[in-house]
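Journal club side-thread
Mid-discussion, someone asked how the predicted structure for our own chain would compare to the paper's figures. Pasting it here so we can look after the session.
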Amino acid sequence: MKRLFFGLLTLLSVCSYAQDSEKKITVKTYGFVGFDAIHDTRQSVSVRHNHVYLYPLNENLDANGKDINDRSKTDMGIGISRLGFAITGPDAFGATTSAKIEGDFLGAPGNSKDYMLRIRHAFFNLKWNKSSLLIGQTWHPLFVPENYPAMVNFVVGAPIHPISRAPQIRYTYQASSDFSVALYAMSQGDFKNSGALEQTEYANIPEMNVQFKYGSPKKFFAASTFGFKQVLPKTLDDAENYLNENVTSFHANLSLRYTTPAVTFKAEGAYGGNMTNLVMIGGLARKTENGNAVNGEYEAIRTSAVWTDIHTNGKKVKFGLFAGITNNLGTANESSVIEDEIGYTRGYNIASVTAVSPRVVWTSGKVNIGLELLHTIAAYGDDLDEKSKPINTRNFSNNRLTLGCRYNF
């Protein structure tokens, strides 16, 4: 990994001196050195060295009736540190060209391993007068780069705010300075649906999306996305026979932003089925007939989410507040069951996750220091109804205090 990393640096350095008769290849570095110190009041679902926080854990009683998840934890880490290269070069196919490759150091799961470099973005882009073609890996369209929560928390609101990067081919038509339409054909990279691997690959149909954007983040901005995907959860049924039962799900969002000189207002609503590849709750439930599980057939669990984020626009100090909720809506039909298929869900017994998070961020030169209190409530169901929706819920909460420090370059 170290040889690969330094080899990449050397290659990009050499490329910066290459040129043709028209344009040089230029490489600009960017990123930040990041440090997070966190304190949780309850054991919670978090991965990637505790940087990716999702929700508090359910009650888990020991032999004496003591909840073993009622325990606090403090940690520090630097895995969010980021390094990227922005590249421009000679024209191709009558278009200007650019590329980006970016990584962080959250590639190894758990604290028992050294931090490892992982790819976040890796793509090139061809831009003509009113259109562009992007090929590579970057944000899923349900993550709108112009409008996401400006939180200190690394995952900026997940599992309420969708977050995912995916291999894709994206064609964008810029109809005017204020309006664009983008078409996406996508697969899955390190953000995958819960359950068996290569579910999207075996379905043989890429995830398809269309996205509309209007306005400018400097004033009023709106984006809306509509898409569908198919997955093949299992290639063999319970009797180890050939199986080819795809599951189709749909998703959509509406994202709004309004910026004034003093304050920025952001809001978004999202809805869809089988959204675990977007680090959201839900997934797949097994179909049933007359109370019995159907051999190898599944149905998407639907999820909704709404959030808002408001922050001041001061140059030295910014105050902000994030609030949101995501709900498990169950399957569309009253004929599903989770049973032993928990591996195909995230938070299968969670009816909702609610979060409220005030923050303050100080900026001086290239250094940002943020302090944030994230209060998260997960409503766990003691049982599931016939739509695999959790019922008879009890709330468990966690307070995560984060001190986030960034040196930007």
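Post-session note: The first helix runs from residue 2 to 15.
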